Structure formats: C-alpha cells, structure tokens
Amino acid sequence: MSDLVLYTNPQSRGRIAHWMLEEIGQPYQTVWLEFGPAMKSAEYLAINPMGKVPALRHGSALVTEAAAICAYLADRFPASMLIPELASPARAAYFRWLFFAAGPLELAVTARALDWQVPEGKSGFVGFGSYRQAIDALEQALSPGPYLCGEQFTAADVYAGSQLGWGMTFGTIDRRPRFEAYVGRLNERPAARQANLLNEERLKDAGR
Length: 208
Hints:
This protein has nine helices and four strands, in the order E-H-E-H-H-E-E-H-H-H-H-H-H.
C-alpha cells in the first residue's frame, strides 16, 4: 500500500491533484468518493472538515485544497522538478502565479459565472480587481512562454492550466489563442493524459 492516498471525485477539482500525482511519478492510492453522504460522513470529515474533495493523505500528513496539494507534492518530491530551484528567479514566478490562479483568478471566474457584480468604485475591495484585469494579467504572464516559469514546467502550470482548461470548456474564461495553445501543450503531457483517462474510466464505471 502506498503512503500517498488521494480522496477525490472525477467531477471535481480532484482532477488537478490527480494530474499532479501522475506528474511526480510516485505510487499512490485513489479513494473515490461520491458527492453527498460519503463526503459528509464522520470518517471523511475527520480528513477534511469542509466535506469536499480533493484531500491528500501522505503518511500522517493531511493536505486539502488543490493548489496546496500541488505545492506540497512539488516541494516534497523535488526530483520531479515541478518547482524551480531555491536560488532561481523562476521560483518567485512559481509562487506568484500558483497563488494568483488559486486566488484572484478563481474568484474572478466564479464571480463572472454567478453574475456577481462588483459595485462601481469598489474593485479595490476584492482581490481580483475585475475579471478583465485578472485574465489580462495571466495572459501577460504566459507571453514569454512556453510555461509560467519560462522553459520549466511546474506545479503552477498544473493548477493554472487546469483552471484555464475548465474555464474555456464551460465558457467562463475567454478562448484566447495564447490560452488555447498553452492548454493544448499541457494536455499532451503523458501525466495529464493518464490522469484524464483514469477519471473518465471512473465516470464510465459509475454510469453503468
């Protein structure tokens, strides 16, 4: 049995963590949870009091939130080279854009999807400013390319790329050429393909 255990559902942000686990190349166990009672059981609430997925158990350590799981795994398994070296200037970009995607970008996209309007003159009260500002900032970050940290693919790309992929699929993020090219590169990665395959197979099994 692996000491890495992922709690997830194929129709959740757990896909991000699943992709990240495939990238680090370490053995892991998957615990599939259905939405509803299984996620609200006393057993699972002891793992994540929020009663949602993903969650990661690594030995006695517990990590929740997809961005935190990506950051933890990159840091814990440095041989996977999914985080820039400590002395590299790219390390600043890594932290910057990983947490930008988990904070301002996700909130901006959520606000747009739910038609939440920031009152005029109040954009300084929200972390994303405006939807347009957040999207433009990420596009600018990708302009040097091919990844958020230049030539090095990192955990920041796993998280931000997942957000962009879902957003463009569901119409909550503009289909800009730079975004489409970036997500296309990411989707070609063997780990991304394998994680997607595992989740799609689970969906098929659940529908039988």
